[in-house]
UniProtKB/TrEMBL annotation:
GO terms for biological process: acetoin catabolic process; epigenetic regulation of gene expression. It comes from the Bacteria. Keywords: Acetoin catabolism. This is Acetoin utilization protein AcuC. Residues 40-336 form the Histone deacetylase domain. The lineage of its organism: Bacteria, Bacillati, Actinomycetota, Actinomycetes, Micrococcales. It holds the Pfam family Hist_deacetyl. Belongs to the histone deacetylase family. It comes from Arthrobacter crystallopoietes BAB-32.
Length: 412
């Protein structure tokens, strides 16, 4: 038996017209200041092209959408999840780029120092913080900061292109605002280590990360045995998938772990990180995903938020380094889904956008909003194959985590 795209996910948006989903999107050209330099893979061009493509589809102008100018987070807000001396260290190198602090990850090859680094980083964190506040106030049900998702930053150091962890800042604001259970779902190719570490011993937050195994990819963590601190055992969930994992295997793993634990945890809000660097074209991972599969996971997270949280959902971007072909398409799909009206897969990329990319960057952009992938997967209910490396990975996670939530690793 094979399973294709979840029928509930695919029908969700038709049952919830866009006008019924108050949505906030963080976007401003000021976000392009988060810029490590022209040779760095994390180019701000990916944000510019995403916003431009989303605008071609009219997503930012939908009647239910409010576009927010991101505010720079204050030191006190950043210190809700970061050490105060780390924030001061970022401020210091931001003002004096010639004096890096490599002990804190500031001035490394991954995180080179640039003038204004603190303000640029705090602005991205401030955007996610604003979305959390909107969810608390009831101003929006769906929210997205596609410039966020900086999940490697830890309490006291920068890491992996991430200075401040906006995901953690947003989650902590939700907790401080009275939310009792937050589910964090991370589908970036790289393990969401910083967010996991910040909430390692907090039972109010469940972090689920699907990623390429740390045996072959930065940051070298994220194994099934990493299950949370002594006061929050079972709150950290990791599915470490082998290199070259493609759509069918990835979706099988997602559906064998995420919906079951989400149902057991019963979150009040879902925060998700949608790094698209697992795509087959991306240069910084060895995964083989399509935009089609990435879009389907967005629909699945939307479905979980609708089922479990009354729709309360805060989505972010993350990694993604094929800045012309993959990132704008993936995150335009995210913006469309968050705002309640998906762009159909079989849609052409608007010609004005492709013309702009060619004229401005000398690159031929993609022709369609899909990769023409055969999107299907074998559901876990079909059975466990001990000779399959992905199945062994999934079973390791289920055996480690499921009993801690009253679930059977073999059957649930």
């Amino acid at each position: 038996m094979h399973r294709g795209p979840d029928s509930r996910s695919l029908s969700l948006m038709s049952e919830n017209p866009a006008a019924a989903i108050p949505t906030e999107i963080v976007w401003s050209e000021s976000m392009l200041a988060y810029n490590f330099g022209p040779q760095h893979p994390m180019s701000p061009v990916r944000l510019e092209l995403t916003a431009r493509l989303a605008s071609e589809f009219g997503i930012l102008d939908r009647g239910n959408v409010t576009v927010l100018e991101p505010a720079v987070a204050t030191d006190a807000q950043l210190e809700s999840v970061h050490d105060a001396d780390y924030v001061q260290a970022v401020r210091k190198v931001s003002a004096n780029p010639d004096e890096p602090d490599e002990a804190r990850g500031l001035g490394t090859e991954d995180d080179p120092v640039f003038e204004g680094m603190h303000e640029a980083s705090a602005r991205l964190a401030g955007g996610t913080l604003q979305l959390a506040e909107s969810l608390l106030a009831g101003r929006a049900l769906h929210t997205v900061n596609f410039g966020g998702g900086l999940h490697h930053a830890a309490r006291g150091n920068a890491s992996g292109f991430c200075i401040y962890n906006d995901c953690a800042v947003g989650i902590q604001r939700l907790l401080d605002g009275g939310v009792q259970r937050v589910l964090y779902v991370d589908v970036d190719a790289h393990h969401g280590d910083g967010t996991q570490s910040i909430f390692w011993n907090d039972p109010r937050v469940m972090t689920i990360s699907l990623h390429e195994t740390g045996r072959t990819l930065f940051p070298g963590t994220g194994f099934a045995s990493e299950a949370g601190g002594p006061e929050a055992l079972g709150s950290a969930v990791n599915v470490a998938l082998p290199p070259r994992t493609g759509d069918a295997a990835w979706m099988r793993a997602f559906h064998a772990v995420v919906p079951q634990l989400a149902g057991a945890f019963q979150p009040e809000v879902i925060v998700s990180q949608h790094g698209c660097d697992g795509h087959a074209r991306d240069m910084l991972s060895s995964l083989r995903l399509s935009v089609d599969a990435q879009r389907q996971m967005m629909l699945d997270v939307a479905d979980l938020a609708n089922q479990l949280c009354g729709g309360r959902w805060l989505a972010t971007g993350g990694g993604g380094y094929d800045i012309f072909d993959v990132v704008p398409r993936a995150w335009t799909h995210l913006l469309a889904i968050v705002s309640g009206q998906p762009v159909p897969l079989q849609t052409e990329v608007p010609k004005p956008w492709r013309d702009y990319v060619r004229d401005r960057y000398g690159v031929d952009g993609p022709l369609a909003m899909h990769d023409d992938a055969r999107l299907w997967w074998r559901s876990w209910e079909v059975g466990y194959d001990p000779n399959d490396e992905v199945d062994r990975t999934v079973m390791a996670t289920r055996k480690e985590i499921f009993p801690l939530h009253g679930l059977d690793p073999w059957f649930d």
